[in-house]
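Dear colleagues,

For the upcoming journal club I promised to circulate an example of a predicted protein-ligand complex. I picked one with heme C because it came up in last month's discussion. The inputs are reproduced below in full, followed by the predicted structure.
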Amino acid sequence: MRRYAPFALALLLALSACAGWVAAARAGGAAPATQTQTQTQKQTPLRVLPDGANPHPVRLELPARRPLSAVARLGRVLFFDTALSGSGRMSCASCHDPRHAYAPANARSVQFGGGNLRRPGVRAVPSLEYLYRQQNFSIGPDNEENETVTLQQLVALGRRAVRVRKTARDTRASAANLVPQGGLFWDGRVNTLQQQAGGPLFNPLEMDGGSVATLARKLRRAPYASRFANLFGPAVLREPRLLVSEALFALARYQIEDPSFHPFDSKYDAWLQGKARFTPREARGYLAFNDPRKGDCAACHVDQPGPDGQPPLFTDTQYEALGVPRNPQIPANRDAHYFDLGLCGPYRRDLARQTRYCGMFLTPTLRNVATRHAFFHNGVYHHLAQVLAFYDDRDTRPWRIYPIVDGRVDRFDDLPARYRANVDRVDPPFDRQRGQAPPMSRRDMRDIIAFLRTLDDGWHAPAATGPR
Ligand code: HEC
Ligand code: HEC
């Protein structure tokens, strides 16, 4: 799968044409023509037929459905095994519930974990769905060609390239942008699902599984221990590190192989393939979601299939500082000096000195978003209507979003004052000023929410009329 032109090309362009491109972007012009080689999607005007159907049905390239491998089946057992946690009562599924798109069933901003299940987390739990195509963390388009380039070199390149404004109808710019993208967690601090699973297993705020030795001991005594020996050879049971590493590998295989992590059976997927019709409200919502003068949501939450029929994941996997308001429901936030700065810390450390990334978080998928109960990295909102109001009011009516301190609106109050300039004020709908008309009407927002509901998986075509 190759969504981007080879990175070598981008690097060359960046080095040779950087200055020109920067100037063009500054002057508000488009990127040089060569940049269009990184174009990821066709520019067909968006339309919905009067009956709600898709005028350009596509064949989606969906992941093949095969029976799970033995390793993935072992991963499934581990995913639900509460014995691996310090408390003995928590598994991956406690926070990533398969009946709730692998997100929590409850509406808490953060979940409780730890040995006594009373230690509050610091971030909202993301869904585990649709991560199977997530690229490694990089700055600029990622693929094999840039593996020899270090992150710090990319940082230096990115510093010279100006980020181009993103709009829903022109995502070329965003594909070529030398901005942070890819990775897992809200701050991209790990790359693979295998690395990732180690995080919650050992995190004292989450499963609190203790040391590698402790976990290995539990795995050796588990009813499924012989499966490790059968799959990886008997020596695996004698090597704690190896044993834990194979367990993490199995957890990753489960998430990659099991179709429940990427079912692609939403109404929108059916619509794309010409097998469903939008209601009038959904159709209006779809157009507003893509309209740069309204939601412009698709600029970051990409909703068009790739040229090779790859179904859209509703994220460009880039990082953005949106300046969402501080959430007093997170206990860590009682400390006025504590700030979750995303890319620049405190949970990832390698970019701590890249202060212009402070406040940036990964753009999440919007698939199954209507089933979620806590939104944004800090779970500050619990209803989609509040999220839409944030996008609508942040710049035009900020007093509706942020607290008033000493008679002034404390804009971007979840960031220290020195990082507030990092917040995106370029990409619509964030390009407006206080007092200007908000980009969306109430009806637009209701329509967009109706469209978002078409992204819920498990959609079934209405039963055909007549006897079966
Ligand atoms: C106590 C709740 C909790 C438990 C238990 C838990 N997680 Fe998570 N999970 C989280 C939170 C919170 C995040 C986001 C953390 C961050 O961004 O720093 C997360 C993030 C993830 C991600 C990254 C998702 C993304 O969109 O980038 C994956 C994958 C994941 N968890 C898998 C697992 C696996 C596998 C287990 C079991 C070994 C597990 N989790 C157990 C709370 C939990
Ligand atoms: C400039 C890029 C950008 C645009 C435009 C944008 N978003 Fe987002 N969206 C993000 C990022 C980044 C986050 C995560 C921010 C955070 O948590 O701090 C996010 C988070 C969300 C979430 C929370 C999802 C979750 O699981 O927590 C929803 C819902 C959402 N966006 C919907 C929309 C809608 C609807 C629009 C259009 C009105 C829109 N977005 C426009 C970048 C964007």
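Two points we might discuss: The two ends are 41 Å apart (CA to CA). Residues 1-42 have pLDDT under 50 and may be disordered.

See you all on Thursday,
B. R.
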